[in-house]
Amino acid sequence: MNLFKKRKKIDELDYNLINEYAESGNKVNKLLQILIIIAIISLGLTLLQRLHILPIIGEFLSVISPVFIGILIAWLLVPLTDKLSKKMPRVLSCIIVYILVLGTLSLLLAYTIPNLIDQVKELSKSIPTMINELQKFINNATENLKIADNSTFNTLKKNFFENLKEIDTGNIANMIIGGTMSAVGIISNLCLGLMIGFYLLFDYHKICKKIFKCIPTKYQSDARELRKRVNSSLRSYVQGVLIVMLLVFVSQAIGLTLAGHKAPLLFALICAITDIIPYFGPWIGGIPAAIVGFLISPLAGILTIVSIVVIQVLEGNLYQPLIMGHTMKLHPITIMLALLIFGHFFGIIGMIVATPATATLKVLFEFIDEKIEFINKIENA
Predict the structure, then answer these.
(1) pLDDT by residue (tens digit) across 170-223?
(2) How many domains are there within the chain?
(3) Which CA distances in Å does 112 have to 106, 265, 266, 308?
(4) Which residue windows are transmembrane per the record (predicted)?
(5) Is residue 176 part of a domain?
(6) Out of 95, 238, 351, 368, which residue is the most buried by the measure of CB atoms under 10 Å away?
(7) 14 in a domain, yes or no?
């Protein structure tokens, strides 16, 4: 009897081990399949770029960007609008939701934009002084290190400061004008997007029904299920990202202000926007803030780095787990490859959309995989 019990325990253990190995094997297979899809997309984008089709597509997408903004706004606000629509007419619920959203945005912008403009002006005026202070610091450092007579170092130093001096107040003024024109274009697209979004929000479910009618009847249930899964995954991710961005912006603005930074709102905004990019984002946003901090003073530079590190620790250990959890469920290797590929073809914008785009592809692939398995089971039965 004892031998039988021992044998039974060994069989159970073996069975559990087999299940664990099978599950890990399935995960590896899925990861490989996703990587293959990313590789195929990369190849396709390379071909489009070589054939000079990608720039044309980019121009077309930039022209119709207000439509995408409208779709995104409507898509994000649908859950809240649907809840209100149960107690009041649809048009009234849309108006209330828009008033709430626009009111909140207006309050934020009314405080942020004037202060942001003042800080940028102050920073632009301070740049020549900061460059002179940096030059004095480097000259003193070279004398102390006894490399002031090194011809190679002096050539590098001369070229460096010549390039810096080209960033004069006149060039900065041109940059500000160019940035203002870009901002006007973005605001115009956003306003158009808000208008389009309102009409899409009002007729959201009707539009969806019309789209589904274009799909063959036998595939409509699958299309609805796929849409449900993509919505569930992406909406929670996008909403979480927006909340985390706001928290990073506020935290970073406070931290940089305490550090004595010249333009805390500007660099907090840069840090918040680049924070969307996994892994690389904090560095992309933090390095410019740290450089300007050191141009102000060594203490300001050190405090800026401390602020950036503290905020990133808070984000990684508090903001992200509490607000977003593991909404995307993507392997780190997959995310990094997606960032490299999308970043190569589409720059910063590509890096921002890389994670949600890859997650959508993953949901699509898993859905197709489930359907194939289901069909195989029916055929083998």
Answers:
(1) 555 566 556 656 666 777 888 888 899 999 999 988 998 888 888 888 888 888
(2) 1
(3) 10, 8, 9, 20
(4) 31-48, 60-78, 90-113, 172-202, 237-259, 265-284, 291-313, 333-354
(5) yes
(6) 351
(7) no
